[in-house]
Specification:
The chain is of the alpha/beta class. The chain is 43% helix and 12% strand.
């Protein structure tokens, strides 16, 4: 198993799904005292992704329900302007197959990187659909889907971290 030191979540604009995944995984890493071995970031790959777009209030609210507080002034990261995050990543996890294609087509920095959908990395298949504009219940469902994937994947990431220590 390759060492996963730097994990990058991607989605279209980095205002909802990837932000939720980043926040949940950071908490899981902290709970397992792995923060010295694993870092997590997120960014958007779509043409319309922008640095500084506000994180969705719905995303912040469903994270708050999990005891995770994202400040109101939290903003997105545009990977077109922050390509170093792709270069530095050991593992890139997308919410959809479409985002993987966008990454491969528009970011030469992703060449040779280990890239999966989050569901695939967690042992499943399919996409995590965008909850934007669909209401609080859809955001909560999306959060729960991401959380379930991360719970299935955390042991694999922890094992990678322990391989770094040996």
């Amino acid at each position: 198993m390759p060492p996963y030191r730097r994990i990058l979540f991607i989605c279209h604009a980095n205002t909802s799904r990837s932000v939720i995944a980043e926040a949940l995984l950071k908490r899981m890493i902290e709970e397992r005292a792995l923060q010295e071995h694993l870092t997590v970031e997120s960014g958007g790959v779509a043409a319309y992704a922008r640095d500084g777009a506000l994180v969705s209030m719905d995303a912040r609210l469903v994270l708050r329900d999990e005891g995770i507080h994202i400040p109101a002034d939290s903003v997105s990261t545009d990977l077109k302007r922050n390509r170093h995050l792709i270069e530095d990543a050991d593992l890139i996890l997308a919410m959809t197959e479409e985002q993987i294609q966008m990454l491969r087509n528009n970011f030469p920095e992703a060449e040779g990187k280990e890239v999966h959908t989050l569901k695939e990395f967690a042992g499943g298949y399919g996409n995590i659909e965008d909850p934007v504009g669909k209401g609080e219940d859809e955001y909560a469902s999306c959060r729960d889907e991401i959380k379930a994937c991360l719970e299935r994947a955390i042991d694999r990431l922890a094992a990678s971290a322990s391989n770094q220590v040996s």
